């Protein structure tokens, strides 16, 4: 059957006069997939892929029937493209919803088809899909509860059809063959029916438009949860991806999806028998339904490129955006998102406010005014028949975002009166009202639970509203400084807010201290060693090592490897499983080659430190021929010793690495904790191994080069001393300078708190801000509650940064 399919595809392609590359451009199916289908290397005959190829090759009815004959019998009807008789039986669309009319050629395979088509790694991928679906459901249920969407009830998010200029032709959306007549699509609904509405879109591609704060993110969460409630074991898993972090000019869509899957679900780094990660296998097997949230958050100059990239794929997807930004991208590219239907969220009404806001005011002491009655003056004014609905306040309170801010400031704060919003002199327009709500949100959430301070076990930290707003404003400003005005607040990138020179200085200082203390420790054991010389040797060794590590770090910065991503691996014992599934020899060689240059530079720095020691302590001139020759020889020999030793040890540890298990949490705090544990294990393993490698390797290398470079000596005592210094100091320097957790520790836990930019316990502060609703969690990163709040805080930081004072040691703030 595989041979028949391949022969037929090759014949149709040659008849069309197309190369495999040209067929890729026309169909959106990768050359690799086309090649595997034509050569019989793929036994997974996904109907959507064959449909796309049939369309691109302009196959006629007879050819389509031959293609269908090569697949399983239930798939035949789905690919035939032959119209059913008028009033005939209902044909299931891609979501399993019966519809009357011609049997279309869906872009995504139906559930029935997926049940019949074999997959070469079905058992392994099925397990991964089940794990992913379970984690996605748990995560977004928790996030929906945290955002209090159902308290007291969900706001009535509604929509209308998007403008025709921003959607594709109805025939394309329904994936009809040429000449077929399209049917009217009814896409009306509300928040509770979003999954059902998506099921009516046969192409599986939907664009959701709405203005800032209109409820797009809440709609995507509800879509994911409802979709997961009804999915079968063979359906795709919807995964929300925040588009603001995507640069389509540097990262392919597939690679970006895989990177975020690995970041937010570390267990997907496990390897398949073919060598790819589970994340890559899930994407390639079309088992992930991307829910792309925030198209408008892509950098302005990249949106048209992003739209062109999405148009070059056939992926079913859901895309959200503000209308204006999406319309601009459509105008620049000249085409909307191909095959995509569109919805546009509508504003809430005064009646919606009247039913919602009074029920958010809890029974708290408000004098004689009661609780829900606090909103009566506002609602009476907005309901006035003359012009109540046209007032600036009525226009502001039309989106779930602004209603949530108003609820926080007035319904949940007993000392606040929403009647102040009616003051037209203080708030003459919409912008002043929105800025007031944005500015008051953070102080309110940090003041509103002041009464809890006396409760047993209550945490006193981070309660000062002014300091909290200052720290949050700095973090918002940090995100604005990143490429493309990022929205993902990742703990491993907080240090990137510092200048490059400052980061390099931190590497030099931390590495110098690590090596200096290691050398002093060795000299402390060697008691006969003179104290003065011990201090001098330790200081010079530390300085040389700091400069060496700084040089390596600068090289990485220069070539774009400045961001040290958190490790998604753990160390395992030999024989304790296959780990990541990689080939040990190749893994060892790759890590050895990567570490060797850095170790060599460390050895060169050690030789330079020895020369400096002789100059300062013994008075030997640095420019004498003998000193220059000895220094050059030491640079070569010690460079080889340190380089080979470090490469050997790090290569072995690479072989021992295994992916994190399924139980590993991908929350920001969980990922930080797992990285801290991984670095600690690496230090415990690397120190003794690197010590022995330097000591033993030094003996072997000096024996090998003795006579070639002149007489070389490497005593056991000297070898152990240098080995301990290199093993202890070098490992600690590596941990602080070249791991995500180390950079976080040095920059975010020490450097930034010293300057007052962040609190001393930054992790607890971020978690506290999340619990208060200022931040939200998206997998392994935080995000501000809304991009408008982030922009407001960043602007506030820029306006007031000159008045900031450093935090004091021991402060409970």
Explained architecture:
With 813 residues, the chain is mostly helical. It folds into five domains: 2-116, 434 Repressor (Amino-terminal Domain) (Orthogonal Bundle), CATH 1.10.260; 123-345, Rossmann fold (3-Layer(aba) Sandwich), CATH 3.40.50; 350-450; 465-490 and 746-803, Arc Repressor Mutant, subunit A (Orthogonal Bundle), CATH 1.10.10; 502-738, no CATH class. Helices cover 55% and strands 6% of the residues. The strands form four sheets. The chain has a six-stranded mixed beta sheet with strand order 3-8-4-7-6-5. A two-stranded antiparallel ribbon has the order 1-2. Helix 22 (500-525) packs antiparallel against helix 27. It is flat.
- Please, how many domains? 5
State mean pLDDT (0 to 100 scale).
Answer: 80
Q: What is the rounded Rg?
A: 32 Å
Number of strands: 12
Query: Could you give the distance between the termini?
Result: 70 Å
User: Structural class per helix/strand content?
Assistant: mainly alpha
Proportion in β-strands: 5-15%
Largest sheet: 6 strands, mixed
Strand order of the largest sheet: 3-8-4-7-6-5
Residue share in helices?
Answer: 40-55%
Query: What general form does the structure show?
Result: flat
Question: How many DSSP H or I helices?
Answer: 30
Residue windows where pLDDT falls under 50 for at least 5 positions = 72-121, 450-460, 576-581, 803-813
């Amino acid at each position: 059957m595989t041979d028949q399919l391949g022969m037929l595809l090759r014949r149709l392609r040659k008849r069309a006069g197309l190369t495999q590359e040209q067929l890729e451009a026309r169909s959106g199916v990768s050359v690799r997939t086309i090649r595997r289908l034509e050569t019989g290397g793929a036994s997974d005959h996904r109907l959507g892929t064959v449909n796309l190829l049939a369309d691109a090759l302009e196959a006629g009815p007879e050819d389509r029937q031959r293609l269908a004959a090569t697949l399983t019998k239930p798939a035949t009807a789905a690919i035939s493209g032959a119209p059913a008789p008028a009033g005939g039986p209902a044909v299931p669309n891609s979501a399993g919803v019966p519809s009357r009319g011609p049997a279309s050629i869906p872009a995504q395979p139906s559930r029935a088809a997926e049940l019949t088509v074999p997959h070469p790694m079905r058992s392994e991928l099925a397990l991964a899909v089940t794990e992913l679906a379970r984690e996605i459901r748990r995560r977004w249920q928790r996030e929906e509860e945290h955002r209090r969407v159902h308290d007291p009830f969900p706001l009535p998010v509604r929509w209308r059809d998007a403008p025709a200029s921003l959607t594709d032709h109805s025939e394309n959306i329904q994936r009809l063959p040429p000449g077929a007549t399209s049917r009217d699509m009814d896409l009306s609904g509300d928040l509770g029916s979003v999954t059902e509405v998506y099921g009516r879109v046969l192409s599986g591609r939907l664009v959701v438009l709405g203005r800032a704060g209109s409820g797009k993110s809440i709609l995507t969460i509800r879509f994911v949860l409802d979709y997961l409630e009804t999915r079968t074991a063979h359906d795709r898993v919807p995964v929300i991806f925040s588009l603001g972090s995507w640069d389509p000019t540097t990262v392919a869509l597939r690679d970006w999806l895989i990177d975020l899957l690995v970041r937010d679900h570390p267990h997907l780094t496990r390897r398949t028998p073919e060598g790819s990660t589970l994340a890559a296998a899930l994407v390639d097997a079309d088992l992930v339904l991307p829910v792309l949230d925030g198209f408008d958050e892509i950098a302005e100059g990249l949106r048209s490129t992003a739209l062109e990239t999405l148009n070059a794929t056939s992926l079913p997807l859901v895309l959200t955006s503000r209308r204006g930004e999406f319309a601009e991208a459509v105008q620049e590219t000249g085409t909307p998102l191909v095959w995509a239907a569109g919805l546009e969220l509508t504003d809430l009404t005064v009646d919606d406010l009247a039913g919602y806001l009074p029920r958010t005011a809890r029974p708290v002491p408000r004098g004689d005014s009661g609780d829900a009655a606090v909103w009566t003056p506002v609602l009476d004014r907005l309901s006035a028949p003359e012009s109540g609905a046209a007032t600036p306040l009525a226009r502001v309170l039309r989106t779930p975002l602004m209603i949530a801010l108003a609820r926080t400031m007035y319904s949940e704060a007993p000392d606040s009166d929403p009647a102040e919003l009616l003051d037209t002199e203080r708030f003459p327009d919409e912008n002043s009202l929105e800025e007031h709500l944005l500015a008051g949100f953070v102080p309110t959430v940090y003041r509103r639970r002041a009464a809890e301070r006396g409760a047993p076990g209550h945490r006193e930290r981070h309660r000062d509203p002014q300091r909290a707003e200052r720290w949050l404003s700095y973090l918002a400003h940090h995100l604005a400084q990143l490429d493309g005005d990022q929205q993902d607040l990742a703990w491993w990138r907080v240090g990137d807010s510092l200048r490059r020179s400052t980061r390099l200085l931190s590497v030099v200082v931390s590495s110098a201290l690590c090596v200096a203390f290691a050398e002093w420790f060795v000299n402390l054991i060697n008691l006969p060693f003179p104290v003065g010389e011990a201090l001098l040797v330790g200081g010079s060794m530390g300085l040389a090592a700091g400069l060496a590590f700084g040089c390596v770090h600068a090289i990485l910065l220069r070539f774009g490897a400045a961001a040290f991503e958190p490790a998604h691996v753990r160390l395992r014992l030999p024989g304790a499983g296959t780990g990541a599934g990689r080939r040990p020899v190749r893994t060892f060689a790759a890590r050895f080659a990567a570490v060797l240059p850095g170790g060599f530079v460390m050895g060169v720095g050690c030789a330079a430190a020895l020369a400096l020691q002789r100059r300062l302590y013994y008075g030997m001139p640095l420019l004498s021929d003998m000193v220059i020759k000895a220094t050059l020889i030491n640079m070569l020999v010690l460079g080889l010793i340190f380089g080979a030793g470090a490469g050997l040890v790090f290569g072995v540890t690479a072989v021992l690495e295994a992916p994190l298990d399924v139980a590993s949490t991908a929350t920001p705090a969980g990922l930080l904790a797992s990285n801290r544990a991984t670095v600690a294990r690496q230090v415990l393993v690397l120190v003794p191994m690197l010590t022995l490698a330097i000591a033993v390797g030094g003996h072997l290398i000096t024996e090998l080069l003795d006579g070639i470079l002149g007489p070389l000596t490497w005593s056991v005592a000297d070898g152990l001393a240098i080995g301990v210094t290199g093993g202890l100091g070098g490992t600690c320097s590596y941990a602080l300078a070249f791991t995500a957790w180390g950079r976080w520790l040095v920059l975010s836990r020490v450097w930034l708190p010293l300057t007052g930019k962040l609190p001393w316990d930054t992790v607890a502060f971020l978690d506290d801000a999340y619990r208060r609703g200022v931040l939200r969690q998206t997998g392994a990163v935080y995000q501000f509650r809304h991009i408008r709040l982030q922009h407001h805080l960043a602007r506030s930081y820029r306006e007031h940064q000159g008045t900031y004072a450093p935090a004091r040691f021991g402060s409970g703030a």
